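Sanity check. The docking grid for 4-nitrophenyl phosphate depends on where the pocket ends up, so I'm generating a full predicted complex first rather than guessing from homology. Inputs follow.
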Amino acid sequence: MPVSPRPRLSPSRILFVCLGNICRSPAAEGVFRALCPEVETDSAGTAGYHLGEPPYGPMQAALKARGLDVSDLRARQFIAADFDRFDLIVAMDHSNLEDIEVLRPAGKRVPVRLFTDFALDRNADHVPDPYYTRDFDGCLDLIERAAAGLKLQLD
Ligand code: 4NP
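Predicted complex below; grid placement will be based on this.
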């Protein structure tokens, strides 16, 4: 039997999570749904600063330059019930990961993984927040690498 370096994943519903749900996680959702339209996707923020808002304008513009439209997405907050609704939860940074784990219901075994862990080059350990860095294209380059790696791990 061939040796696989990592267990394969078979998620049909993937949730991407960041802090505000207006930059990184909607971008991750937009990139990933274009790559894998058969997988159901959503995104959420651990904070509720921007509830109901569309993705941040400069992030939408950077995505549009790559042919991706995320104008249909609206920000919402991550809730414990998301552990029932998704079979893989993907966090943009360690802080998101910790905030997600705090809400994990007892006995729920849904995997929560860092998005950068899927990037094949593995030279980043989180997705830096472009709301602060203003590097929207660098963020999208990393998201595209992580999304491609995630797709490769799916059955
Ligand atoms: P995101 O970026 O987590 O990638 O959506 C942020 C957007 C807004 C804020 C923080 C992070 N904010 O504090 O308003």
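Relevant for the grid: The radius of gyration is 15 Å.
Also worth noting: The mean pLDDT is 95.
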